[in-house]
Amino acid sequence: MIPLPILSACIVAILVAGCNNAAPQPDPEIPVNGRVLEVTTIAEDLQAPWEVAFAGDRVFVTERDQGRVLELVDGDQSELRSFEVDATGEGGLLGMAPSPDFEDNGQLYVYLTTSADNRVLRFSTDNPGQSEEILTGIPSHSIHNGGRIAFGPDDHLWIATGDAGTPDRSQDPDSLAGKILRVTADGSIPDDNPFADSPVYALGLRNVQGLAWNGDDQLYATEFGPDVDDEINRIEAGENYGWPEVTGESEEEELIDPVFVRQPPVASWSGATFLVESAIPEWDDHLFVAALRGGRLWRIELSDDGQEVVDDDELLVDHYGRLRQVTQAPDGSLWILTNNHDGRGSPTEGDDRILRIGPD
């Protein structure tokens, strides 16, 4: 028999935040224009996954604390390789991006925290034990490591960093912290970067977590605020987004205001993606953002010029817990990573998982 105090504590936990061994709720259905989009589970039993990436017909996932790169085949997981990482706090194996020429070279790029720094490495899936340094010396800390990487429409590698616990670094053009960086596939500096001989593309950012391009090749980034004002910013070359002088909207001419601000209890935004020529045409050109503390998926529709939000919606509210990443899959659906094993969530049976939203 379960002692009454323990039983009572579990009941309270279920009512407040969900007991750790409680079963997840049934997968919901999402009505869109008279039809139903289903939420299905692609994979389960992941440990603090941070990134899911598609490369040709292959699917890869990073696990932050374990330092592992996994390959998924029909929901089954196999370890491709592991990295020695410093997983203190928010550090570890974070973002991942396949080379634009993956089908020719099989290369994956990863962003990880070591005992000395944050860095970007690349390796070939044909020879995963060997790595090559692309960019090193990004300041690291137990908090604010940034970590999202992606190849943009220009085939350059874009790197999101955090202030690594020292806010003044974000305004220092000589520091790689608190920035969005842009380098070539081999780590060299593009000639058209806004600051000569520097990978810095934009500055004044606190802890960038998501990078997403719309159909017009315009970049947007998601960012954690301090204890207020989580931001979505429209990124322009050489611009200053204000941290730590300001957060949220400032209306100061020399600083760029965010296009969308919400507060941490409903936001704490992480990964983001635009749907483009998707399997859900009603949502094409809409921005989707995964929320950690907010425990929901945001759908955001922007004006034609991309400067304002004209509509927004909150999906999967408090249904799957913390959401780390959302991305468009090759079939045009949305894939979402939960993150209930990241040290701040309440895992249920099967966590962490990969979810899919889309038509059958």
Description:
This protein has 360 residues and is mainly beta. It has one domain (28-358): Neuraminidase (6 Propeller). It contains two helices and 25 strands. The protein has helices at residues 4-16, 102-105, and strands at 29-32, 35-43, 49-55, 58-63, 68-73, 76-82, 93-98, 107-113, 118-124, 127-138, 149-151, 157-160, 180-183, 200-202, 208-213, 219-223, 230-234, 260-262, 269-274, 287-291, 297-302, 309-315, 323-328, 334-338, 354-358. The strands form six sheets. It has a five-stranded antiparallel β-sheet, with no helix packed on it. A four-stranded antiparallel β-sheet has the order 3-4-5-6, with no helix packed on it. Strands 7-8-9-10 form a four-stranded antiparallel β-sheet, with no helix packed on it. Strand 4 (58-63) and strand 5 (68-73) form a beta hairpin. The longest helix has 13 residues, at 4-16.
At CATH's second level, what is the architecture? 6 Propeller
Helical content stands at: under 10%
> Could you tell me how far the N terminus lies from the C terminus, measured between alpha carbons in angstroms?
44 Å
Spell the H/E element sequence. HEEEEEEEHEEEEEEEEEEEEEEEEEE
Give the uncertain stretches in residue-range form.
1-23
Kindly report the spatial arrangement of strands forming the biggest sheet: 1-2-25-24-23
By oligomeric state, this entry counts as single chain
Biggest sheet record? 5 strands, antiparallel
Tally of separate helices: 2
Q: What's the CATH superfamily, by name?
A: TolB, C-terminal domain
- CATH top-level class: Mainly Beta
Q: How many domains is the backbone divided into?
A: 1
Q: In the CATH scheme, what's the topology name?
A: Neuraminidase
Report the β-strand fraction as a percent range: 35-45%
